[in-house]
Amino acid sequence: MDRIDKKILNLLQKNNRISNQKLAETVGLSAPACLKRVKKLRESGVIMADVSIVSPQIVGHRINVIVEVEMDRDTLDVYDSFNRQMSACPEVTQCYQVTGEVDFVLVVLVPDMQTYEAFARRELASNRYLRKFRSLISLRREKFRTAIEL
């Protein structure tokens, strides 16, 4: 990946609806050469997806909960099972396996506390391999980015 690829990626992360012509002009390439580079970035997995970022508040998901999860056992089968379980939960927008005092950190978006309580009972409290979990309710989001500066 060279500096032109990085310029392309930085621009696409800010606006992936930019026309190929405008993108090519901005990075100093011909339109076909730019299109070829973007296609290669997609095929190689550097560009994982083209998405629209939706405002959680406007669509009714007003509560953001960070959940720290500590498992009862440190085994791959337990971790894999928990990962699969969280992947199937629509409330979980992010799931990280981490080092340190806890095993997982979840980001959970829900419309209200009743929905979070139902999720916690159904998916966390009922998990026989989960030792404990701690819920941190976000008061407000101070920073949110999806772009990685290259």
TrEMBL record:
GO terms for biological process: regulation of DNA-templated transcription; response to amino acid. Residues 1-62 form the HTH asnC-type domain. Keywords: DNA-binding, Transcription, Transcription regulation. Gene3D superfamilies: 3.30.70.920, Winged helix-like DNA-binding domain superfamily/Winged helix DNA-binding domain. PROSITE patterns: HTH_ASNC_2. InterPro entries: ArsR-like_HTH (IPR011991), AsnC-type_HTH_dom (IPR000485), Dimeric_a/b-barrel (IPR011008), Tscrpt_reg_AsnC-like (IPR019888), Tscrpt_reg_AsnC/Lrp_C (IPR019887), WH-like_DNA-bd_sf (IPR036388), WH_DNA-bd_sf (IPR036390). One of its GO terms (molecular function) is sequence-specific DNA binding. One of its GO terms (cellular component) is cytosol. Pfam families: AsnC_trans_reg, HTH_24. CDD domains: HTH_ARSR. SMART domains: HTH_ASNC. This is ArsR family transcriptional regulator. It comes from Oceanospirillum linum.
